[in-house]
Amino acid sequence: MGLDGTEDGQETVMADAIADTTAGTVRGISEGGVRRFLGIPYAAAPVRARRFAAPEPAEPWEGVRDATRPGPNAPQRVKDFPGLDVAPLIGTGWVHGDEYLSANVWAPDGGGGGRPVMVWIHGGGFVIGSKDAAVSDGSAFARDGIVCFAINYRLGVDGFLPIPGVPTNLGLRDIIAALRWVRANAAAFGGDPDAITVFGESAGAMAIANLIASPLAEGLFRRAIIQSGHAGMTREIAVMQRLVKKLAKLLRISPDKAGFESVPLDALLDAVETVSQRTAKIDLRDSGGREPMFGIGRFTPVHGDDVLPLQPLDALRQGAGAGVEVLIGTNAEEMNLYLVPTGVRDKIGGLLATFLLSRSQPQARKVLKAYGLGQRDMPAGQALTDAMNDLVFRWPARRFAEEHRGRTHMYQFDWRSPAFRGELGACHGLELPFVFDTLATAAGPQGLVGTAPPQELADHTHRIWAGFARDGGLPWAPFDRDKRLVYSLVDGLARPEPVMPAQAFLP
């Protein structure tokens, strides 16, 4: 297969594709063996009286609805990233419109049903992202006989801020509504509603990890793939209401539903940008002095409501989600995405590294010493980066694998990007074009994968994901606390992994 995702020499012919959903008939496009439907509402538009309400079913329509254009996405503001083109990974920013609680579908052409289903949940720190990001085109999965969905959900203030008078975790409630819609409509696209695999990256993976522990999502999916995510980044409602008050003060409104409803969306996005800066004075640490997002984001799901009655790890210990088969993993050098292009890794000194980490971790100095700070050949910025790779992503993912009572397999993506003179390495988000077999979208002089990414690794990675969605099969043994097998996607071998130094500093 070529970098454009089509078979070499394959000619494509476009034709209409029709499907009957629970709300009405949609018309998409059939091309290259794939039927593509874009922007189908799975819930009513979250505007006006429905803006801060739980999702409601999409309103039925008459006739045939056009589903050939992606449509709007959640209000957001995307900034340029130094030296990298990240638009293929997160989308191009806010596409205005009301009906943004919507789904894309890629389905195999031709007749037949009962096919496995995959549902993609995009990342973006719970404040940005889109189902329409170029990297997450599901055509390759459809060519493999899988019906692939991708969804939008509410973000930022509308989705993940526990405003008094507003249902909590609206973004998670949207995803639950989308999964119910997928179950009700999978057969219309040739899918099996009892063979659903959810998969997501970063914030999308965090959402999935949380929903595995949620009583409201029980029975909605059979398998889950958690890419660079885990269940450790939730906060107590009381802690997140500090953010409610901070934003209300910035906006000069009352810290309640009426106050936030009165603010124009652009002003709201301005305030989100302000509180998202690392210099913003807001303390979101828990009673133990830990900040689960480590400063890389302010908006998170909360626990202590009907969506997440318990912190998810506690729920997993009690057997929540034991019936879900899980593939979970991380990239080898996640934090390089945040610390290499910005120059922080190479410029920061020991005192500043300790101060920055202390805002999230009460034993910051001990952590950095455990990762080599003070040793002759260990720069402070590298010690901070190595520590945060494990604290923020790698160790919490292993903790999820330890606590989940169902079958759980662990992978690591360890191919190193040549970007930034090879220093970007196996950073956050790098696996995405390999998973979707969409290398061309992220290639180029400023592309995340450089100019000559290995197609054979994309073939292998995509095959692993598709095989797991079909029947749960994987070519290595499950993870457990003793053997701790982690599968390298680069060399195709599963090895026992030692416990990380981070283990001593996280619950």
From TrEMBL:
Q: Which Pfam families match?
A: COesterase (PF00135)
> InterPro entries from the entry?
AB_hydrolase_fold, CarbesteraseB, Carboxylesterase_B_AS, Lipase_GDXG_HIS_AS, Type-B_Carboxylest/Lipase
Q: Which residues form the Carboxylesterase type B domain?
A: 17-472
Origin, by domain of life? Bacteria
Q: Write down the top EC class of this protein.
A: hydrolase
Instruction: Cite the PANTHER family for this sequence.
Output: CARBOXYLESTERASE (PTHR11559)
Query: What is this protein called in UniProt?
Result: Carboxylic ester hydrolase
